[in-house]
Automatic annotation (TrEMBL):
<feature type="domain" description="GH3 C-terminal">
    <location>
        <begin position="438"/>
        <end position="551"/>
    </location>
</feature>
<protein>
    <recommendedName>
        <fullName>Jasmonic acid-amido synthetase JAR1</fullName>
    </recommendedName>
</protein>
<dbReference type="Pfam" id="PF23571">
    <property type="entry name" value="GH3_M"/>
</dbReference>
<keyword id="KW-0436">Ligase</keyword>
<comment type="similarity">
    <text>Belongs to the IAA-amido conjugating enzyme family.</text>
</comment>
<dbReference type="Pfam" id="PF23572">
    <property type="entry name" value="GH3_C"/>
</dbReference>
<dbReference type="InterPro" id="IPR055377">
    <property type="entry name" value="GH3_M"/>
</dbReference>
<dbReference type="InterPro" id="IPR004993">
    <property type="entry name" value="GH3"/>
</dbReference>
<dbReference type="InterPro" id="IPR055378">
    <property type="entry name" value="GH3_C"/>
</dbReference>
<feature type="domain" description="GH3 middle">
    <location>
        <begin position="349"/>
        <end position="423"/>
    </location>
</feature>
<dbReference type="GO" id="GO:0005737">
    <property type="term" value="C:cytoplasm"/>
</dbReference>
<dbReference type="Pfam" id="PF03321">
    <property type="entry name" value="GH3"/>
</dbReference>
<dbReference type="GO" id="GO:0016881">
    <property type="term" value="F:acid-amino acid ligase activity"/>
</dbReference>
């Protein structure tokens, strides 16, 4: 595997993908068979009475659809140190922690070598297609990646975020080298104990190697925007560090200071060049290509909740292409972006049929049936339809409802190309109204257009269903880049209310069974405090996603938002 990494042949990777996707149904049957043969001795499967059967029909007849909550008792035993075959044939040695931004607390998810294999296969596949369109030379990558501390569970298992488990794996670095995507920052920066200090050093490393940087990336678009927002505040300090060859005293971690001292040498010419570049920009437009003239593209997950950051990212990227990274979750990968020229808003992901067994629950547009439709197999889905994804992987998740809604946009050979729509459990709903994360994002984008007239922008946003009032109503939290007039903010509030076009919402507002939407404008830095809260819980910024809807279980985040409210407005739109 390691030799294969060092001698990556993109055309061969594409050919393997083409062969595999020509008969995705056959590959799916073989993959399920392999999963069940490797894990048939697991207590969970034994108790379900599969008795060695590995065909899809038996699997569906004996194994129920589950959520994480159903598997928690089994995972808890693994976390606490029970090394018997509980969910998998071989013992699980590593646990991944989900970001915890959806439910308010991280989930424990088994991680093993097979999931690492799938990760590297996804990376190789999307790189091969990307390299056809945007070939990279032998330069470096400015990657805003952060590994949280690897802890131990009660039972002694290694535990970290899913991204940390990938970044800490020695095969990750070999793969990045093979993909011409080697991080310009040393490991001490990636795994530094303080995110803010690591971010500062990432920026500094990028500037030191400014003419070698071929791509700028992070796991999520949010991290890239956050990095360059930070750059706006610290660029002069960075210039001073380069000029004097000495690291800013605010970076106090000894390991970071030691690592950076090996890279930093006095370079007044470079400092002067960067100073002139920054001074010549208009409102930081085109900052990335200005700083890094050889960058080919900006890369990271830019779909779903990350679409909210695209406008700002395009501002920093100027004319550079934005390429959306692949589709997966802490539980496992699903598809690779094999059409890199599509803009992020249109990005699709071709499912790799050998990295898991996939099923798709049709989403009903009507409410007549209260029974959940039977899941369809990978090759049975229909173009234009929406589905909830069900995953069976090599790490002990069987018929696991991922909670993602996807739309089938087409097929590549016989494997579907999916567009991520939203999280299925992220609904703003009070009675007959149903608004998804996507609906919320559209409403905020409409309000952002009102602010744009005042040369202001939305920094970040979240929401809440407030049923403490009668009738209940929606609350939208906005952080704005500057001061807006009362009239503009009131119009923003009305615009948000009008932009939820779901028929159930509009009719409920008209008959006053849902109260006026409430806009709460929070002070500058409120969403940074939410990020800091999650970092304090052990999350990695690479995995952070702003919670778009704050549920009742997410008390601390709600507290942070409410404590930072500067102004409140009630809609007069209805």
């Amino acid at each position: 595997m390691l030799d294969k990494m060092e001698q990556l042949n993109p055309e061969r990777v594409i050919e393997e993908f083409e062969v595999m996707t020509r008969d995705a149904e056959k590959v799916q049957r073989e993959t399920l068979k392999q999963i069940l043969e490797e894990n048939g001795s697991a207590e969970y499967l034994q108790n379900l009475g599969l008795e060695g059967r590995t065909d899809p029909a038996s699997f569906k007849a004996f194994v129920p659809l589950v959520t994480h909550k159903d598997l928690e008792p089994y995972i808890r035993r693994i976390v606490d140190g029970d090394s018997s075959s509980i969910l998998t044939g071989k013992p699980i040695a590593t646990i991944s922690l989900s970001s915890g931004t959806t439910q308010g607390k991280p989930k424990f998810i088994p991680f093993n070598d097979e999931l690492m294999d799938a990760t590297l296969q996804i990376f190789r596949t999307s790189y091969a297609f990307r390299n056809r369109e945007f070939p990279l030379g032998g330069g470096k990558a400015l990657q805003f990646i952060y590994g949280s501390k690897h802890g131990k569970t009660k039972g002694g298992l290694a535990a970290g975020t899913a991204t940390t488990n990938v970044y800490r794996n020695p095969r990750f670095k070999k793969t990045m080298k093979a993909l011409h995507s080697q991080c310009c920052s040393p490991d001490e920066v990636i795994f530094g104990p303080d995110f803010h200090q690591s971010l500062y050093c990432h920026l500094l490393c990028g500037l030191i190697f400014y003419d070698e940087i071929q791509l700028v990336s992070s796991a999520f678009a949010h991290s890239i925007v956050l990095a360059f927002r930070t750059f706006e505040d610290v660029w002069q300090e960075l210039c001073n560090d380069i000029k004097d060859g000495e690291l800013n005293s605010q970076v106090t971690d000894p390991s970071l200071r030691a690592a950076m001292s090996k890279l930093l040498k006095p370079n007044p010419e470079l400092a002067d060049l960067i100073y002139k570049k920054c001074s010549g920009l208009s409102n930081w437009y085109g900052l990335i290509p200005e700083l890094f003239p050889n960058v080919k593209y900006v890369y990271g997950i830019m779909t779903g909740s990350m679409e909210a950051y695209l406008k700002k990212l395009r501002h920093y990227a100027g004319e550079l292409p934005l390429l959306s990274a692949d589709y997966g979750s802490s539980e496992g990968w699903i598809g690779a972006n094999i059409s890199p020229r599509l803009p992020p808003e249109l990005a699709t992901y071709a499912v790799l049929p050998n990295i898991g067994y996939f099923e798709f629950i049709p989403l009903r547009s009507d409410e007549e049936s209260y029974t959940e439709p039977e899941p369809l197999d990978l090759t049975e889905v229909k173009v234009g339809e929406e589905y909830e994804v069900v995953l069976t992987n090599f790490a002990g998740l069987y018929r696991y409802k991922l909670g993602d809604v996807v739309k089938v946009m087409g097929f590549h050979n016989s494997t579907p190309e999916l567009k991520f729509v939203c999280r299925s459990n992220l609904l703003l709903t009070i009675n007959i109204d149903k608004n998804t994360e996507k609906d919320l994002q559209i409403a905020v984008e409409e309000a952002a257009m009102v602010l744009a007239g005042e040369k202001l922008e939305v920094v970040d946003f979240s929401s809440l269903v407030d049923v403490s009032t009668d009738p209940g109503h929606y609350v939208i939290f906005l952080e704005i880049s500057g001061e807006a007039s009362e009239e503009v903010l009131q119009e923003c509030c009305n615009c948000l209310d009008r932009s939820f076009v779901d028929a159930g919402y509009v009719s409920s507002r008209k008959v006053k069974t849902i109260g006026p939407l409430e806009l709460r404008v929070v002070g500058r830095g409120a969403f940074q405090k939410i990020l800091d809260h999650y970092l304090g819980l052990g999350s990695a910024v690479s995995q952070f996603k702003t919670p778009r809807c704050v549920g009742p279980s997410n008390i601390k985040v709600l507290q942070i938002l409410c404590n930072n409210v500067a102004k409140t407005y009630l809609s007069t739109a209805f």
